[in-house]
Write a structure and sequence with these properties.
Distance between the termini: 22 Å
Order of helices and strands: EEHHHHHEHEHEHHEHEH
Strand order of the largest sheet: 5-4-1-6-7
CATH class of the largest domain: Alpha Beta
Largest sheet: 5 strands, parallel
CATH superfamily of the largest domain: HAD superfamily/HAD-like
Helix content: 40-55%
Number of helices: 11
């Protein structure tokens, strides 16, 4: 039985608009696509360092400028300044949280975010409706490290067996399952709503 839901943020509540933002900054769609490809290289350490709080915004900017010398450093600096305002909430997910609360199901957040989360969250009002949150940069841990799932259970006072963890990343849901959570790998709001209905949660709509 699902008594509460623990949500990821990026890819679940918001869509990534990195390409569009960098296109706006540079005036070149291909540069936006190139930047997107380079910043998430599998062997790049900066995302973990940034999301764990090990480095701050200025150091992260310097690392990205060094990682992508093909791009104008000023463009990368501007990207780091503006990206928090370029994450848009999926409207149906915002509504769904309200519906879940109306059914008496608490909603929590467990997300990998850097110190810029504090800038970002002012643009994502669904986060104001969370019953509690764990953000990676405050903990020194990042998903899929199983310790952050254990930390979330303790800090938010959750029973993992009665908690559904929702994330778009398979590595994260797999780690959560090892920590005892029920899990759901998110792809789109329609399928998630259908899943909840199949679990006996009386959420309306299709």
């Amino acid at each position: 039985m699902i008594k509460q839901i623990l949500f990821d943020c990026g890819g679940v509540f918001v869509k990534n608009h990195t390409i569009e933002l960098m296109e706006k900054i540079t005036g070149d769609r291909k540069l936006g696509e190139f930047f997107m490809e380079r910043i998430y290289l599998p062997d790049s350490p900066w995302p973990v360092l940034y999301d764990s709080g090990a480095i701050g915004k200025e150091e992260c900017t310097r690392r990205l400028q060094a990682l992508i010398p093909e791009m104008d450093p000023a463009h990368i600096e501007l990207y780091m300044k503006e990206w928090p305002a370029w994450q848009y909430v999926l409207p149906t997910m915002d509504t769904m949280v309200d519906e879940l609360h109306a059914l008496g199901i608490p909603c929590y957040l467990l997300s990998n975010y850097s110190c810029q989360y504090e800038e970002f969250r002012q643009f994502v009002h669904v986060l104001d409706h969370m019953d509690g949150e764990v953000v990676s940069y405050r903990t020194g841990m990042v998903k899929p490290d199983i310790r952050i799932f254990e930390y979330a259970a303790k800090t938010l006072q959750l029973d993992p067996a009665a908690t559904l963890f929702v994330d778009d990343n398979a590595a994260n849901t797999q780690s959560a399952a090892k920590a005892g959570y029920q899990t759901y790998q998110f792809t789109d709001p329609y399928l998630f709503r259908k899943f909840l209905q199949e679990q006996g949660i009386g959420i309306k709509g299709e």
